[in-house]
Design goal:
Pfam families: YgjP-like (PF01863). The chain folds into two domains: 66 residues, no CATH class; 149 residues, Metalloproteases ("zincins"), catalytic domain (Zincin-like), CATH 3.30.2010.10. 33% of the residues lie in helices and 26% in strands.
Amino acid sequence: MSWLPDAASPGEPSLPALPAGETARSIELGERTVAYVLRRASRRTIGLTIDHRGLRVGAPRRASLREVESMLLQHGQWIGEKLDEWSTRRAPEVLQITDGLQLPVLGKPLRIRLALGANRGVWNLQATEPTLTLCLRAPTEAARVLEKALREKARELFAERLAHYAPLLGVTLPRLSLSSARTRWGSCSLRSGIHLNWRLIHFPPTVIDYVVAHELAHLREMNHSPEFWRILGAIVPDYRDLRAELREVSKGLARF
């Protein structure tokens, strides 16, 4: 179960080949021709997703093309508005990693320091000004060492929060994998476990907890039905506010 589009560069080219089960189609919506990707899967309803790749439609295997296109026509105005929004989005800033750079970790400022060393990160979160020192063999290693340090911190935190919420939801602690997905913050599979985007480490702990609890709740209800939101709301009563906060803080997330 995947959800919540991440910030992405507008105008990125489509993948040259579509995965099995996906087909490229187009439809006339008002005065515009809209291309979309149709993906058939084991699901009960037709769903629409719009991100930097354009319009993507998920449909039950038994749904007819007429039913799919009827849904698109019904939501034609919304589709057009969202496509226009994505076309005018500014590409996320690309960070230049220099000594003294400040970036958010757990929603608070973290100062990045550069030093000579064996390509490792040294954390000091107890100081008045928390720091992460990148000990580098060469300046060109900065981005790789920074990402590695943040990934390690993210895995440690995510594992702890999964262990906290799994018993509250009455589910077995799942396998954790980190992702670098450009269009989702988390996903859940009964077979492969929970996948969480390591860049969540930039966000406040309450937002991270929302994503963790959201994905764990899918182990009880693998959809976004009213029952799913009831399950999630029982342990995260303010999930609506946190979902809105996630969307807001993700807009300005820089990449390196």
